[in-house]
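Whiteboard transcription, Tuesday session. T.W. wrote the structure tokens on the left side:
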């Protein structure tokens, strides 16, 4: 087939570069950048660094100039998708571990413009029902779910045979697991083979020392949904994230864990990392091209803008203590979103 000179068969034009600047950029994976910028092409970050350097690399572009700070999109690591997930964008959330009770709910996160993993909730009281039609219904749902994103399983059954089969099924299909420990103790989950790096658990109450140790040994991340559940988990040895269940503000959940509400650099950094990079790790999306939870070359262009003033020394504390309720914009996959409704927004240069 003839082709026009200079155009290879199958070649596609590159997306244009878009530059976003702010008084401070907090990549999380690297030190904060004062007077920083993020260069985006399509749905990927191609460069993060000082504003002057990035603007000099793209002199013909007019940057989006944001107030406050640009941070990686927050991750809600435990969200019921029947609780209007579009509300999450108001808080700077760009990805979720969404638990869907049916196929209609399973598509709601993608419709709201949120990334992450959609977990199909599976309830089956006993082995007989599971063998009769439970397994087949789940496999059909996995194949028919109406969005192109990542799918996982949220298994709930008092029958250990069913839970063991669900764990095997997840590994067979290469799907992640997400379980609430209030329904299944850590020891039970370990016995049925559910725990491991491919699983994260949601907790609303404290774990005992044996359970914390078991989760740590198995490499299973923990999504904290209540301040009461954080006991023994803030030592940096366990991968933690935050979940709201109802579409609230995960940054506010994290802030509730600060001691006496006073800034403390080490703890504040750990909590901010948990609501970004920790959430990405819980979803298995913290590494490789298109990674979440941090901003760097090759990461997915998901970030939030908070109207918070800080410098490189106070960045983590300022975001944690002043950030809740002050998200002014989110960008998901390189596209701006209207706060609160999840719809695509027309790009406009901030004043």
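and on the right, the sequence the group agreed on:
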């Amino acid at each position: 087939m003839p082709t026009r000179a200079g155009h290879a068969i199958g070649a596609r034009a590159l997306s244009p570069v878009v530059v976003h600047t702010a008084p401070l950029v907090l990549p999380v994976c690297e030190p904060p950048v004062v007077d920083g910028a993020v260069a985006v092409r399509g749905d990927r970050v191609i460069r993060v660094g000082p504003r002057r350097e990035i603007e000099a690399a793209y002199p013909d572009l007019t940057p989006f100039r944001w107030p406050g700070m640009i941070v990686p999109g927050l991750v809600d690591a435990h969200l019921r998708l029947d609780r209007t997930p579009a509300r999450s964008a108001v808080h700077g959330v760009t990805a979720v571990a969404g638990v869907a009770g049916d196929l209609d709910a399973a598509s709601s996160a993608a419709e709201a413009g949120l990334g992450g993993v959609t977990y199909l909730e599976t309830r089956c009281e006993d082995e007989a029902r599971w063998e009769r039609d439970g397994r087949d219904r789940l496999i059909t749902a996995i194949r028919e779910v109406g969005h192109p994103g990542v799918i996982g399983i949220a298994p709930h059954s008092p029958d250990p045979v069913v839970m063991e089969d669900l764990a095997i099924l997840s590994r067979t299909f290469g799907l992640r697991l997400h379980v609430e420990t209030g329904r299944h103790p850590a020891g039970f989950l370990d016995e049925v083979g559910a725990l491991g790096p491919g699983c994260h658990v949601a907790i609303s109450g404290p774990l005992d020392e044996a359970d914390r140790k078991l989760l740590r040994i198995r490499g299973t991340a923990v999504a904290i949904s209540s301040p009461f559940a954080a006991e023994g988990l803030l030592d940096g040895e366990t991968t933690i994230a935050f979940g709201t269940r109802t579409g609230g503000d995960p940054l506010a959940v994290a802030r509730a864990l600060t001691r006496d509400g006073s800034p403390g650099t080490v703890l504040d950094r750990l909590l901010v990392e948990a609501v970004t990079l920790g959430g990405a790790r819980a979803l298995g999306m913290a590494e490789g091209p298109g990674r979440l939870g941090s901003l760097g070359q090759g990461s997915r262009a998901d970030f939030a803008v908070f109207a918070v003033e800080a410098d490189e020394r106070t960045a983590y504390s300022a975001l944690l203590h002043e950030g809740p309720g002050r998200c002014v914009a989110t960008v998901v996959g390189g596209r701006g979103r209207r706060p609160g409704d999840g719809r695509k927004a027309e790009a406009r240069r901030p004043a």
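Someone added at the bottom: The longest strand covers residues 17-25.
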